[in-house]
Fold this sequence. Notes:
This protein is an alpha+beta fold. About 35% of the residues lie in helices and about 25% in strands.
Amino acid sequence: MRNVLTVLSLLLVLLLPPFAGVRAQTAQLDVRFDSTYILIGDQIGFHVVLEQSGPVTVTFPEWKDTLIKAIEILKVAPRDTAATQDGRLRISQDLVITSFDSGLHFVPPIPFPLYAGGTRDTLFSPVAGLQVFSLPLDTAQAIFDIKPVYRMPVTISEIWAVARWVLLGMLLLAALIFLWLVAVRKKKPLELFRTRVIEPPHVVALRDLEQLRGEKLWQNGQIKPYYTRLTDIVRTYISGRYGVNAMESTSEEILAGLKDVGFNDALLYGKLERMFSCADLVKFAKMTPHPTENDTYMLDAVLFVNTTKRSEQPETVQESVPADDAETAGNEETVQKDTPKDSGQ
């Protein structure tokens, strides 16, 4: 019975015209495959052609990944519109399809909504058939075992990939032996640590402010460098004292950051606000402040540091240093100490 159905299906496909159509008064819809049969996995075209006349609107379907379950859509080309010789409008669209399911497959009528003269209707495509043949299995050939692994000869690049690391290790070993011999000749042990003195932020800030005062920048007409140095010293102190990222922040962000950590001295806050505002005008608007303002903001900066400083002693720490700095490892290095932020002054 199954063979009879298959033969009838094949006859139906062969008798189908290559370009079947459903005709209406104002629109004609046709669909067809490039061929009525393919080999499993092959790709062919599926073409949709609509010819219409008059004020007719036909909506094409939104193609998904399959026409039917057994026929997959690989590619959908844009619709093409052209005029025919008899004045009708021709709209066509091409799809690329494939199938991995052998057998005879039919694409049922596809609905195309139609609107003409105030009337809504539906235009259906004709049934399209496609026969998918599977690959024949050649049983006459013998089954062979998997071939063994082929061993490739060792190349120079592969040898060099290993040899370069061996050479690098030998060079490092030679360098260590050389440093050891130098230390032995000098009869001085190789020191691997350096002593650093970490100063509190207020010590660094007051020293830098005094140095800036002695340079007399604004007195020599260098107004912008003076305010740049002044605000940088204050920013550095705020970063170390309160933990506010002042060096990467605007003046408004610094003042807001002080409030966030609980700074509540209104007098000092106002002095800082005026100093930063004046510095911004000097740096970005090329304003020239009165000479008394220059001295006032220096005094305000000193007052701010002295009022908010914490009573801390310098700390001494040791850190490892590279071998080439071993001779100077005994020297002391002074750096600023960052203190944890706290609330209030």
